[in-house]
C-alpha cells in the first residue's frame, strides 16, 4: 500500500507536456519583499553540526539557514499536484546523521485539502526529498500548528514511529492518549473542530548509548484539564503519565536541558497560534520527579499563554520563553540564567503609557516590517506575536532566532541581554518569502510591479531585488484582495481590502500606489472580491464578496449592477473608458455604458467556472478568458470566441510586452496542457512554450495569480499562495514555432441567458494569519472589563463591555481594549 502511494506521488511529479512540446529555460527568482511575511512556527538548530538550522512555515514550505544569515527555500519543486507539501507541520533534523532531514507535510485535515499527508525524507540536508505517504491527513495550516513535532499526529491519529529513516511508519500501539482538545467543536468547516492531537515529542539523548534507540522519551498531548505529559523509559514500548504534572493548560513545547536533568514545558490555555489568555512554565526534574512552577509573571500580568521555549546547551540554567500572544502593548520574551528562579523581560512598564525597552530594533533587511516605534494606542506590535518557536544556536550563545506571525527575529549579541541589559532584535528572514499573493499589476509606466497581498497588505515594488520600505497604508488593511490600474492614466489605481468591515474597503491612488485615499462612496460592511478601474480612471467596478456587483463614477456612492452575476470575473478595457467586461459560468458579458449595465455576449464552450479575464492593452474588444474548460480568445468584444486547442483548463492569464515592436502581446497562462504547466505564446496562442521547470512548481495553480511585464518582453510575475512572488526571465533560446493553427471558433451566441449561474466555491486561498473561523465571544452577563483591559478579539471569552468611562475599541483582529471614552 505504501509503495503504491509512493509511486503514484512520483508519477504525478513526472507529468509533463505531451511529447515534442517545446520548453524554454527561464531564470526564476523571488521578487524581494524580505522579512518573511508570514507565520514561522518552527526554527530548529541541529545539535551536532555547527551552523545547520531549518525553519518551517505553515503555508510556504521549509528553509535552510546559510552562514550569512540568509535562508534558502527547500520545497520550490512542489507543483500543482503536490501543493500541500508547502504546509510543513513538523520538522526534524537528525542529531546523529545531520544530513538527514524529515518534514511532515500536508495543508489541512478538513475538506480543504483532499490529500493525505506525507513525510518528506532528505539525506542531503534538504537538497532533495523522497516522499513517504501517510495514511492520514496532516494540517500545516491548522490550529495548533505551532506545537506539533515530528511523528506525533493530529486528528486523534496518535503517535507514529518509523525505524527505517521514515520510509515506513507504524502506530505506536502502547501509546493510547491521542489528545482530546478541540478548539471549537461547533465549526462546521472542520477547521477548528479537529483534534489537535500530539503536541510534541522530546528525546532524552543522555538516557541512551550511541547506536541504540533512545530509551527515555517524553510526549506532550493536547489535553486541557487532564494528564497531558507522558514518558517512556524503554524506547516507546510502554508509557505512563508523568506523576505530579499540572493539568490546567495545554502543553505547547517540551525542551530538555540535559545539564540540568530537566524538562522545561510551556503551557497555554489555547491551541494557538492566535489565542491563549493564560498559561504557565513548568520545570520537571527527571531524577527527583519534582515539578516546579517557574512562570515568569503572575496575577494581572499573566494575560497570555506561553509558546516557544529554548535552552542554551552551552550555559547550564539559561532558558528563554516567549509569550505566545501578548496582543497589547507588545509581545514579550523572558530570559533566565538561573534555571527559571528569576527572569528578565524584553520590556517593562515605566508608568503608562511608557515602556522601558531592553532592546534595540533593527528592520534594515525588511524596512516595511516595522513598526519602528511601539504606538500603544494603535496596537502595533514590535517584538511580535504567534511566537511558538525560539531557538538558541547550540554552538553560539550569542546567536538566537525566534519566529513570529510575520517574520523571524534574532541577533548575534544575545549575551548582551545578561551583561548590558540590552539586546538587538533584528529581522533575520532574508530569503524567506512567505506571503499569500492575491493580485499583481505591472502598469505600462511607473514601478514595474504593484502587489495586493494577504496579511501584509501589498507593496509598490520599485525594485524587484530590494525589500520595499513600506507596505500599502492609509487605509491599512491586513489583506488587500485585488488591485487594478487605469489603462490611459496608469498612475491611477484602485485597491480593495478584506479588513475590518466597519471601514470602507475601497482605496484609490493617483501616484502608482505611493499614497492612497479612501473611496468615500464605498458602503460599510462590504469587502473583498475583485475590482476594476475604467481606462480614464473615473469609474470603479467592484464585484464584492457576497454583496453582488456595484459601480461608482466620480467617487459617488456605489450602486448595484444587477445585470452581472455576483460571482463574475471582471476587468476594464484599457483604452475605452466606457467598456468593462465580465464572465461567469459559460457566458461572457460586455458593458459599453461605463459599467452601469451588462449584456450577455458569446459563450465560453461548456465552462462552468471562469477564473480570469485578460485584455489586450491597446485593442478594445480583444479579450482572453481562462475557465475550467479551457482558454478562450475573442477580438470582437466577446461576440464570438476561439477555443485555444490543447488547453483543457486554465487559471492565471496575462498579456505582456510583445516580442517585436508593434507585435501582438506575449501571452502567459497557467494551464492544463496535458499536464499543469506555465506557458508562453508569442503568436496569439498558436504555439506555446513551457516556461517552468522541475525545480519550480509554484504550488496550487488555482491559487496563483499571474501578470506580465508591460515593458520587458518575456518577463512574467507569478504570485503564489505561500511562497511570495516569483519573476521569470527567459534565459534560454526560444524553440522555433512548429504548430499550425488548429483553433476553433465555438460560438456566436448573442442572447445567452443570464438567469442561471452558480456561485463557485474555490479552494480556500489561505493566508498565514487571517484564515480561521472566529469563535463567538460575547456574553451578556459578564462583568465589564476594567480600564485598559481586554474587551474582545479572536478567541476572547472574557467581558466585551467596559467599566464606566471607558469604551471598547478594536485594536486588531485579536485584541480590543477599554480606552477612556
Ligand atoms: C547545572 O546546574 C545545576 C544546578 O542549577 C547543577 O545541579 C548541575 O550539576 C549543573 N550541571 C552541569 C553539567 O554543570
Ligand atoms: C537599549 O538600547 C536601545 C537602542 O540603543 C535604547 O533605545 C534603549 O533605551 C536601551 N534600553 C535600555 C534599558 O537601556
Ligand atoms: C463584519 O461582518 C460580519 C458579517 O457581516 C460580522 O459578523 C462582523 O461582526 C463584522 N465585524 C465588524 C468589525 O464590523
Ligand atoms: C467593441 O465595443 C466598443 C464599445 O462599443 C466599440 O467601440 C468597438 O468598436 C467594439 N469593437 C469590436 C471589434 O466590435
Ligand atoms: C501599445 O501601444 C503603445 C503605444 O503605441 C506601445 O508602446 C505598446 O508597445 C503597445 N503594446 C502592445 C502590446 O502592442
Ligand atoms: C488535465 O487534463 C487532463 C485531460 O483533460 C485530465 O485528465 C487531468 O485530470 C487534468 N489535470 C488536472 C490537474 O486537472
From TrEMBL:
GO terms for molecular function: cellulose binding; hydrolase activity, acting on glycosyl bonds. Residues 783-819 form the CBM1 domain. Coiled coil: none annotated. Gene3D superfamilies: YVTN repeat-like/Quinoprotein amine dehydrogenase (2.130.10.10). Keywords: Carbohydrate metabolism, Cellulose degradation, Glycosidase, Hydrolase, Polysaccharide degradation, Signal. GO terms for biological process: cellulose catabolic process; xyloglucan metabolic process. GO terms for cellular component: extracellular region. The keyword Protein transport does not apply. Residues 736-786 are annotated as: Disordered. It comes from Macrolepiota fuliginosa MF-IS2. Residues 1-20 form the signal peptide. The keyword Signal applies. It comes from the Eukaryota. InterPro entries: CBD, CBD_sf, WD40/YVTN_repeat-like_dom_sf, Xyloglucanase_GH74. Belongs to the glycosyl hydrolase 74 family. This is Carbohydrate-binding module family 1 protein. SMART domains: fCBD. PROSITE patterns: CBM1_1, CBM1_2.
Amino acid at each position: 500500500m505504501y509503495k503504491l502511494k509512493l509511486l503514484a506521488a512520483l508519477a504525478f511529479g513526472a507529468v509533463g507536456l505531451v511529447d515534442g512540446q517545446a520548453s524554454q529555460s527561464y531564470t526564476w527568482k523571488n521578487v524581494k519583499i524580505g522579512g518573511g511575511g508570514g507565520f514561522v512556527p518552527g526554527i530548529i538548530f541541529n545539535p551536532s553540526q555547527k551552523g545547520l538550522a531549518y525553519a518551517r512555515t505553515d503555508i510556504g514550505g521549509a528553509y535552510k539557514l546559510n552562514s550569512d544569515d540568509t535562508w534558502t527555500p527547500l520545497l520550490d519543486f512542489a507543483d500543482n499536484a503536490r501543493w500541500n507539501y508547502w504546509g510543513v507541520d513538523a520538522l526534524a533534523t537528525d542529531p546523529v546523521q545531520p544530513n538527514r532531514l524529515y518534514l511532515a507535510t500536508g495543508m489541512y485535515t478538513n475538506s480543504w485539502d483532499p490529500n493525505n499527508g506525507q513525510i518528506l525524507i532528505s539525506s542531503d540536508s534538504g537538497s532533495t526529498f523522497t516522499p513517504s505517504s501517510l495514511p492520514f491527513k496532516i494540517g500545516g495550516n491548522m490550529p495548533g500548528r505551532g506545537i506539533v513535532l515530528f511523528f506525533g499526529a493530529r486528528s486523534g491519529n496518535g503517535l507514529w514511529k518509523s525505524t527505517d529513516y521514515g520510509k515506513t511508519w507504524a502506530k505506536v500501539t502502547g501509546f493510547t492518549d491521542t489528545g482530546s482538545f478541540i478548539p471549537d467543536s461547533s465549526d462546521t468547516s472542520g477547521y477548528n473542530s479537529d483534534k489537535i492531537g500530539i503536541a510534541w515529542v522530546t528525546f532524552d539523548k543522555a538516557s541512551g548509548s550511541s547506536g541504540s534507540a533512545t530509551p527515555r522519551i517524553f510526549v506532550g498531548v493536547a489535553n486541557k484539564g487532564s494528564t497531558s505529559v507522558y514518558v517512556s523509559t524503554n524506547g516507546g514500548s510502554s508509557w505512563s503519565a508523568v506523576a505530579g504534572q499540572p493539568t490546567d493548560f495545554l502543553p505547547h513545547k517540551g525542551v530538555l536541558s540535559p545539564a540540568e536533568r530537566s524538562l522545561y514545558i510551556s503551557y497555554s490555555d489555547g491551541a494557538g497560534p492566535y489565542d491563549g489568555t493564560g498559561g504557565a512554565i513548568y520545570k520537571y526534574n527527571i531524577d527527583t520527579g519534582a515539578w516546579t512552577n517557574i512562570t515568569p509573571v503572575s496575577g494581572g500580568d499573566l494575560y497570555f499563554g506561553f509558546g516557544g521555549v529554548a535552552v542554551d546547551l552551552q550555559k547550564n540554567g539559561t532558558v528563554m520563553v516567549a509569550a505566545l500572544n501578548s496582543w497589547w502593548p507588545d509581545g514579550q520574551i523572558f530570559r533566565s540564567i538561573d534555571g527559571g528562579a528569576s527572569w528578565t523581560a524584553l520590556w517593562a512598564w515605566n508608568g503608562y503609557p511608557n515602556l522601558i525597552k531592553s532592546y534595540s530594533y533593527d528592520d534594515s533587511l525588511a524596512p516595511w516590517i516595522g513598526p519602528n516605534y511601539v504606538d500603544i494606542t494603535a496596537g502595533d506590535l514590535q517584538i511580535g506575536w504567534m511566537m511558538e518557536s525560539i531557538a538558541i544556536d547550540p554552538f553560539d550563545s550569542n546567536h538566537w532566532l525566534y519566529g513570529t506571525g510575520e517574520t523571524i527575529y534574532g541577533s548575534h549579541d544575545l549575551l548582551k541581554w545578561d551583561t548590558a541589559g540590552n539586546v538587538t532584535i533584528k529581522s533575520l528572514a532574508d530569503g524567506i518569502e512567505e506571503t499569500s499573493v492575491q493580485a499583481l499589476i505591472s502598469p505600462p509606466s511607473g514601478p514595474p510591479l504593484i502587489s495586493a497581498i494577504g496579511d501584509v497588505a501589498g507593496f509598490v515594488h520599485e525594485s524587484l531585488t530590494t525589500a520595499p520600505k513600506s507596505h500599502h497604508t492609509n487605509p491599512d488593511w491586513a489583506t488587500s484582495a485585488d488591485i487594478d490600474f487605469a489603462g490611459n492614466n496608469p498612475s491611477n489605481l484602485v485597491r480593495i481590502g478584506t479588513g475590518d468591515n466597519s471601514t470602507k474597503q475601497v482605496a484609490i491612488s493617483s501616484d502608482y500606489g505611493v499614497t492612497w485615499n479612501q473611496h468615500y462612496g464605498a458602503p460599510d460592511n462590504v469587502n473583498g472580491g475583485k475590482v476594476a478601474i475604467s481606462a480614464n480612471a473615473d469609474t470603479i467596478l467592484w464585484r464584492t464578496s457576497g454583496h453582488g456587483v456595484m459601480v461608482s463614477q466620480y467617487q459617488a456612492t456605489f450602486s448595484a449592477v444587477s445585470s452581472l452575476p455576483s460571482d463574475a470575473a471582471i476587468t476594464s478595457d484599457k483604452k475605452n473608458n466606457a467598456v468593462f467586461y465580465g464572465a461567469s459560468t459559460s457566458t461572457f458579458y460586455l458593458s459599453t455604458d461605463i459599467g452601469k449595465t451588462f449584456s450577455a455576449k458569446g459563450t465560453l464552450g461548456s465552462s462552468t467556472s471562469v477564473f480570469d479575464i485578460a485584455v489586450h492593452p491597446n485593442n478594445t474588444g480583444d479579450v482572453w478568458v481562462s475557465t475550467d474548460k479551457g482558454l478562450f480568445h475573442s477580438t470582437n468584444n466577446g461576440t464570438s470566441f476561439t477555443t485555444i486547442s490543447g488547453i483543457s483548463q486554465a487559471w492565471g492569464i496575462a498579456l505582456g510586452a510583445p516580442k517585436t515592436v508593434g507585435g501582438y502581446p506575449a501571452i502567459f497562462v497557467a494551464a492544463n496542457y496535458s499536464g499543469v504547466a506555465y506557458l508562453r505564446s508569442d503568436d496569439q496562442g498558436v504555439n506555446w512554450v513551457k516556461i517552468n521547470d522541475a525545480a519550480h512548481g509554484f504550488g496550487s495553480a488555482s491559487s496563483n495569480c499571474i501578470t506580465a511585464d508591460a515593458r520587458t518582453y518575456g518577463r512574467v510575475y507569478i504570485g503564489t499562495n505561500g511562497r511570495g512572488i516569483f519573476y521569470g526571465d527567459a534565459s534560454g533560446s526560444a524553440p522555433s514555432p512548429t504548430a499550425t493553427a488548429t483553433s476553433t471558433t465555438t460560438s456566436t451566441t448573442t442572447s445567452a441567458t443570464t438567469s442561471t449561474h452558480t456561485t463557485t466555491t474555490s479552494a480556500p486561498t489561505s493566508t498565514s494569519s487571517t484564515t480561521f473561523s472566529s469563535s463567538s465571544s460575547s456574553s451578556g452577563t459578564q462583568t465589564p472589563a476594567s480600564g485598559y483591559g481586554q474587551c474582545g478579539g479572536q478567541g476572547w471569552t472574557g467581558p466585551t463591555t467596559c467599566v464606566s468611562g471607558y469604551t471598547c475599541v478594536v485594536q486588531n483582529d485579536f485584541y480590543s481594549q477599554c480606552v477612556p471614552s
